[in-house]
Amino acid sequence: MPCLFTIRRLIVSTVAAGAWALLASGPAAAADLVTVEGHGCHVRGGEQASDVARNAALAGAKRQAVDIYRSEVRSQTDAGTFEVDSDRARAAIADALTNVNVLSLTEQDREICAKIRGQIDPEAIRAVLSDASASEPEIDPGALQGDTRCRAYLPARVKLTQPLAGAGRVETRDSLIRRLQMEAVRQQRGSLVRGASQILTASKNGDVRERFMSRMRAQARGLVKYDVVSEEVLAQAGQQVLSITIDARVCVPREPLPRTVAVVATRSTRGAPVPELRNILEQELAHSSGLVVVSNSGLSDVEVSAEIINVGLIERNLTAADLGPGQGALAGRYYQLTATLSGMATVMGSGAQVTRQVDVRQMVPAKQDKRLATETFVKRKMVALAQKLRSGLDRELGIADAAGNKNAGAQPGSAGQGASGDVGGGLNH
């Protein structure tokens, strides 16, 4: 195969004369080194095909080195500020890569594939990590230009295909690149965003991952850096498809992203929706510094539901004897109002549940219409329930209040005292 032979000669001569020779000049003794290998391919065609394949193989060798020395990095650095997956840690390991050689350059189907072998000097890693840990900068040098939201980037290799039918290659490529970036985020699952209580917002469960993806689209859009490893057009199932592989780096935000919360259901004693209760819950949840209220799309991090279990009114005439000594002036006609409301917040990533209940009986002077008195009373208890749910949810998620204190939350089973603030509108109960 003259073509392959020519390419191989060109690559070998380039390696001997260029940067690869510099990498291979490390002075460390072979007995002290650890061998790593990498393999990479790129579609044939174009002057850069072999270079891309070789770079992909080198990236694979570096990833293997990171895996081997993961525990070494963690033992040498502060995991809170200098993680093994950060750009600086990976750069430190790459700096210790020496004796790099191209073992093979072959054609497989329509691709050019390279295999690279190198060696890692453990002492060099320890020295570089020690220096880097002592001079850790405030801003990760691997962050996007002008962006201080990311404290590190997590690596991910992603390969996807997309049909070319009905669209040009440029449009298909743009669409596929966007899918690849989001798939890189998906692969990292819950490692990207954690709350103060370390509750994962995503998991291997597909449904929960979709919630995580929705959240990342809304709050961390664009925080993915990538390099195209390979790109080719293939024939699959009788149609042309574009196949792209990328090496991506996904942002780890410096601060936990606010969780999205949706009120999914509010029911009256008859099972009918209660818009007033939904509005009160959303308004109260919006006051939390760690929550963002969203519509009920089925993709929120936290789902809240509430129910009016019981509402009652009994008209009573209270005499001085009923009220006790010195209370005779208060004798008269009263409404005895009772209400029982229950609410639950479910954290979708962990399955944790926060339940609160308001169960109140109260006597009020019969100075207004029975229906109006009932509506006013029940809506005040709606506010009390919403406050207890928000407080309990903040406590479960470890969300601090505006003063920086952890929200203590309401205790389960505590009585629901009256709250101020009436809300207009009718009540279906």
UniProtKB/TrEMBL annotation:
Region ranges (Disordered): 404-429
Gly residues: compositionally biased ranges: 415-429
Keyword annotations from UniProtKB, A to Z: Signal
Signal peptide coordinates: 1-30
Name of the protein in question: LPP20 lipoprotein
Organism from which the protein derives: Rhodovibrio salinarum
Lineage: Bacteria, Pseudomonadati, Pseudomonadota, Alphaproteobacteria, Rhodospirillales
